[in-house]
Amino acid sequence: MKSLLNTALGLSLGIATATTAFADGHTELTIAIVNNGHMINMQTVAEAYTAETGVTLNWVSLEEGVLREQVTSDTATGGGQYDIINIGMQEAPIWGAAGWIEPLNFGDDYDVDDILPAMAAGLSADGQLYAAPFYGESSMVMYRGDLADAAGVTIADNDSWENITAAAAAMHDPDNGVYGACLRGKPGWGDNGAFIGTIANSFGAAYFDADMRPTFDTPEFNAAVTMYVNLLGNYGPPGSEGNSFNEILALYNEDRCGMWIDATIAASFLENENVRYAQAPNAGNPVGANWLWAWAMAVPTGTDNTEEAIAFIEWATSKAYIQAVGNHPDFGWGSVPTGTRTSTYDIPEFQAVAGFAEAELAAINSAAPEATDIKPYVGVQFVSIPEFPEVGTAFGQEMAAALSGDKTVEEALAAAQAAADAIMSEAGYY
What's the pTM? Predict the structure, then answer.
């Protein structure tokens, strides 16, 4: 298959001749994707793939939490519902080592060495790539420069949370529909859990200690969550406990947010010309203050279309795909998926329109997934163990309860501690 994949049918698309043979069998691929902008755009760009190869692509677009639940269930049981799935850095190494997903080996033209080292490492197990990054991200501050200037506040790289809170307060104008800070509050290990996890890291907290016992009952975690609840509760939009990425993106593009601290990939979709960028805040410990993630594409071992699925992933995560989006009449260079390849940041057309590129790349390169004395496990906003999604889900639910006022911070953290302790104990960690 590799030799065939090295021969492109079209210079603009880079589509491999291997898929032409597949098309003779009227191949259909069912692809489960997260309902974020770059993934939605792919459905349009990939129409050319179908036209060139004859491979029919059936898309299942799901909200982040629902996607994780459905994909995990189907992949773990070998259900075969999907040929290609969106997963990330938490799942890829674990699922690859467990044999749930296929190893990915591409032709030389793919240039795997062009993938940013942090992304390749996070999606591999024992040096083998198991998921190819479609877009990658860290987290950073995205704020309205005009509102900050009018309020007489500044936001610096790696600013203190005290100054971030003061800036949110100064920009907060709910009578005119503007909220100082729009932040994730929706429960989920990849939603509010991810954001709060980075805050906790910056306060010197961690999900687990060196013995893998949960540490939600520590003073550092209490300080981090108290700050988060006060910041978002006082200066965020009503109902923040229901807001994830897409909800906040809509609010920001309606000019209703003074600042947003979230995935760097959001910058591709911000419409206000006054947006400025700063590196993630911290409370004295910058290690882990900004997350690292990739939405990647993998092939479950339950599919009957392994070669066809790998061929599509090779195209959809290639340099040629970046060119296809950049030259597409509906999208352009400001809409290419970023955070995956070094070469993307060297493209003049991209540099000309992507004012966020330097800040995004700096955030990705400064993310620290390696284990440290404070964070004695691999992962920034997640932990690279199979039990973490269950722990993170329980934690996220309790944090949403604290944000909504249904529980105090102390009550929510105590409940999260008890739930996590039960999960880890049952799993045999102690």
Answer: 0.92
**Cα 302 to Cα 394: distance, rounded to the nearest angstrom:** 29
Q: Decide whether 2-137+292-351 matches 139-291+369-426 in CATH topology.
A: yes
Q: CA torsion angle for 141, 147, 153, 155 (degrees, to 10)?
A: 10
DSSP state of 178: B
Determine the Cα–Cα distance for residues 371 and 75; give it in Å rounded to an integer.
28
The Cα–Cα gap between 184 and 241 comes to 7
The topology under which CATH files domain 139-291+369-426 is D-Maltodextrin-Binding Protein; domain 2 (3.40.190)
Question: How many angstroms separate the CA atoms of 359 and 343, rounded?
Answer: 16
pLDDT tens-digit profile of 82-105?
999 999 999 999 999 999 999 999
Chain CA centroid to CA 268, Å: 14
| 255-284 pLDDT, tens digit each | 999 999 999 999 999 999 999 999 999 999
Q: Which residues of 8-23 are buried (b: 16+ CB within 10 A; e: fewer)?
A: beeeebbbbbbbebbe
Give the sign of the dihedral formed by CA 153, CA 155, CA 159, CA 161.
positive
Q: Please provide the CATH number assigned to the domain covering 2-137+292-351.
A: 3.40.190.10
Least trusted range by pLDDT, from 23-32, 59-68, 182-191, 343-352: 23-32
C-alpha 161 chain-centroid distance: 22
For the chain, give every domain's residue range.
2-137+292-351, 139-291+369-426
Outline where 236-318 has alpha helix (H).
245-253, 306-316
Question: 188 and 396 in contact (C-beta within 8 Å)?
Answer: yes
Predicted confidence (pLDDT) per residue in 121-180, tens digit:
999 999 999 999 999 999 999 999 999 999 999 999 999 999 999 999 999 999 999 999
Among 210, 201, 365, 364, CA closest to 284: 201
Other Cβ atoms less than 10 A from the Cβ of 177: the count is 11
Give, as one character, the DSSP assignment of residue 377: S
